[in-house]
Amino acid sequence: MPSTDYSLSRRNLIRGTVVAGAAAGTTMLVGIGQAEADVTEPSIHSASEWGARPPSSPSQIMNTRPKYIVVHHTASSNNVGNTQADAFSIARAIQGWHMDENQWNDSGQQFTISRGGYVLEGRQGSLERIRNGSSFVRGIHAGSPANAESIGIENEGTYTSVQPTEALYDSLVEFCAYICTQYGIAASQIFGHRDFMATQCPGDQLYARLPQLRADVAALLGEDPPSAEWPSVERGHAGERPRSIQYLLNEHDIDTIVDGDFGPATDANVRRFQEANGLVVDGVVGPKTWPELIVDVSQGANGDAVSAVQRQLNHTHGITTVVDGEFGPGTDGSVRTFQRGRSLVVDGLVGPITWKNLVG
Fold it and tell me: Three-state secondary structure along 296-331?
């Protein structure tokens, strides 16, 4: 059961390096920078505990480890109770939506965290598999290929304009650390739903908090704080990263529809760009292609690269910015706000380091 004593909140977990072992009823010490950390399984309520319906058909078992975690919000009411009964209620409601309206065989996500901080098994069989640590139940939560490569966590509420509760966030940190421990996933491999599909999920406010989530999970794992890396984006992906790529292709005079969908036409244009720049022609925008594709912009600039920056600031990082392709004082202020929040040089110049943090 989630603690209501916030003396053991996320802030104190990180500062004081004391971790409450909810399931075991014990505490343990985790030192920041420690080579390895022993993360205890938190309290997780099984699907049978909250009264799940049987799946309409068996779920696929992936006999591999997931590569990353995908964070969602349920887009449901924030005006709900925070008791265990309330948590069980949202789990049953989600399963009902997914099975009755979506015609899925079970809840789509592997796990859910309630606004009261309760962690619940979603897709049945997920709890058994995570304890084993060598396989997982394939979910239906983030499209292909993410469903076959990730663990999805639904977080109860709508986080477009408000932050999640402290109880929910603390449980999310602890649970992500446990998943990472069980499956050998680095804290840097925690993403939002919108990183894989054209969606507002998990809401601007929760998505903007993912860098802090990665840092907090890294602290519990004894890892160095994750630094931004160039992501790998390819055909089948959707969202703001493909949209930025499309804007940047246009900046390089390769006519590309900007719709956030990395389909066949974008794939062909990426390959055209790679060939023209002496890169490996594989259609994957990764650590070699991004540095060639980005364009340095600052106040006074205009065009598609500026639009890409503005979209990232506004839609990915929750910094209100007009998307008009004009790098004026408003965009300059937004860039500086972003740089300050990431402990970057605050100069208003969107160069390689700022670009990497925007899209990474």
Answer: CECCCCECHHHHHHHHHHHHHCCCCCCCCCECCHHH
Taking only the tens place, the pLDDT of each residue in 78-105 is: 999 999 999 999 999 999 999 999 999 9
Task: Name the nearest CA neighbour of 293 among 310, 307, 268, 276.
Answer: 276
Q: Dihedral of the CA atoms 198, 199, 205, 209 (nearest 10)?
A: -50
Torsion sign over Cα 247, 260, 287, 206: positive
358, 317 contact by CB (below 8 A):
yes
pTM of model > 0.85: no
290: Cβ–Cβ under 8 A, 6 or more apart, which residues?
230, 355, 356, 359
Residue given tokens 């049953």 in the structure block: 92
Structural contact between residues 349 and 327, judged by C-beta atoms closer than 8 angstroms: no
Q: pLDDT tens-digit profile of 190-238?
A: 999 988 888 889 998 998 899 889 989 999 999 887 777 899 999 999 9
Tokens coding 125: 């069989």
Q: Say how far apart CA 111 and CA 124 lie, in whole Å.
A: 9
Distance (Å, whole) CA 4 – CA 87: 15
DSSP, collapsed to helix, strand or coil, labels residue 121 as strand
Cα–Cα distance, 192 to 219 (Å, whole number): 20
How far is 138 from 134, CA to CA, in rounded Å?
13
Cβ pair 210, 342 in contact under 8 A = no
Cα distance between residue 154 and residue 109, in whole Å: 7
For the chain, counts of helices (H) and of strands (E): 13, 10
Measured between alpha carbons, how far is 157 from 174 in angstroms, rounded to an integer? 19
- Whether the bond between 145 and the residue before it is cis, its omega within 30 degrees of 0, is yes
Give the three-class secondary structure for 230: coil
Instruction: Please give the distance of CA 306 from its chain centroid, rounded to a whole number.
Output: 24
DSSP 20-49: EETTTTEEEE--TT-S---PPPPPEE-HHH
Cα 13 off chain centre by: 21
**Closest-CA residue to 45 (of 187, 176, 175, 217):** 175
Q: How many residues does the chain have?
A: 360
